[in-house]
């Protein structure tokens, strides 16, 4: 009788920093939603920028490093948020996700054109994958970022068209999508990548938990 080999256990040391990062990245989104509901998009943008700064600082304090994606996102938040407050035009904060996701997609997919899986430099200290695995994971995330960029444009522009005379309602719809739509989509997509992570992991590696990049 053949002895059944037990599945490798989930690497909880790998999971812990992922959960911490997710919590720190979710915080600014929740603050953004609450501030917009209680005041308006401009107050929410100011609180959002402050929360992002605190989130990055806590990430450095707790994890002793800041991943490149949250750092780039933070820079774009400060630039587009600053323009939103300075010009009193919420278009800038609304296209922030489009710019961020388009930038990530361009870098990842552009890297593949030159046979470089740039996602390895983001998650390489957490995951061990065979070269083919890194290429496929990079392609999948690059295409997912394209989908997020397109979705953001469809939602904020569609909300403005649906509520042409009610800017607050249009903004509330977009903020709700940004807070409660993007996150579930990202989690579902990340979970869908688990089989790829495990398929292309070296034989000595245990089960991987999915990388979750929270779009803030």
Could you characterize what this model shows?
With 216 residues, the chain is an all-alpha fold. It has one domain (12-199). It is 74% helix and 0% strand. It has helices at residues 12-38, 41-63, 68-87, 91-94, 96-113, 119-123, 131-162, 167-180, 182-192, 194-199. The longest helix has 32 residues, at 131-162. The radius of gyration is 19 Å and the shape is globular. It starts with 11 loop residues before the first helix and ends in a 17-residue tail after the last helix. Mean pLDDT is 85; it is low at 1-10.
Provide the descriptors you would attach to this structure in a database record.
10 helices; mainly alpha
Please give the structural blueprint.
Elements: H1 12-38, H2 41-63, H3 68-87, H4 91-94, H5 96-113, H6 119-123, H7 131-162, H8 167-180, H9 182-192, H10 194-199
Structure classification? mainly alpha
Give the oligomeric state. single chain
Order of helices and strands: HHHHHHHHHH
- Into which percent range does the helicity of residues fall? over 70%
User: Would you identify the regions where 5 or more consecutive residues have pLDDT less than 50?
Assistant: 1-10
Rounded average pLDDT: 85
Number of strands: 0
Number of domains: 1
Q: What is the gyration radius calculated from CA atoms?
A: 19 Å
Mind summarizing the main beta sheet?
Answer: none
């Amino acid at each position: 009788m053949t002895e059944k080999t037990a599945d490798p256990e989930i690497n909880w040391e790998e999971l812990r920093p992922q959960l911490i990062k997710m919590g720190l990245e979710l915080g600014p989104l929740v603050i953004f939603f609450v501030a917009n509901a209680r005041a308006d998009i401009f107050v929410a943008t100011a609180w959002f920028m402050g929360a992002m700064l605190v989130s990055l600082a806590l990430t450095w304090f707790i994890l002793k490093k800041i991943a490149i994606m949250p750092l780039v996102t933070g820079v774009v938040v400060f630039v587009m948020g600053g323009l939103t407050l300075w010009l009193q035009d919420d278009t800038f904060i609304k296209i922030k996700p489009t710019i961020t996701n388009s930038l990530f997609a361009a870098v990842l997919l552009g890297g593949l054109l030159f046979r470089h899986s740039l996602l390895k430099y983001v998650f390489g200290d957490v995951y061990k994958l065979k070269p083919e695995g890194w290429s496929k994971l990079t392609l999948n995330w690059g295409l997912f970022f394209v989908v997020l960029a397109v979705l953001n444009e469809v939602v904020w522009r569609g909300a403005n068209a649906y509520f042409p005379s009610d800017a607050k309602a249009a903004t509330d719809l977009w903020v709700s999508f940004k807070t409660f739509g993007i996150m579930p989509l990202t989690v579902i997509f990340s979970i869908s990548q688990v089989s790829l992570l495990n398929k292309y992991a070296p034989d000595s590696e245990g089960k991987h938990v999915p990388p979750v990049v929270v779009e803030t």
